[in-house]
Specification:
Layout lengths: L7 H4 L16 H10 L3 H10 L4 H11 L12 H17 L1 H9 L5
Amino acid sequence: MDFPTIMPELLDLPDTSVKKEEEIKVSKEDLFSALDALGFSRISWKLKLLWGKEECLTEFKNLIINPPEKDFRQGFPMEVFKIILKLQETHDQEFPKFVKIYKMHKDYI
């Protein structure tokens, strides 16, 4: 027995679809606060200090490739790693000139 398909737009129901991660806008302040809340306030403080400077890209590289010694054996929790990557993406969007400079230095890649 075939049942008719009901189209949600005809029922005037609210959109309950889940937004993809990249569609959700999160401010960098919220990301820094999340790092603080998760116990990574030193990393948050250092990134805030370097934000908008070319050295910030080196710090992101160091965090992603060479995590701090205390976390070296187990790495970052996945949630923290995602926050760091999102902050790097935000920095790259706000300061694209540093991304170009950074990519020119082959010893940094």
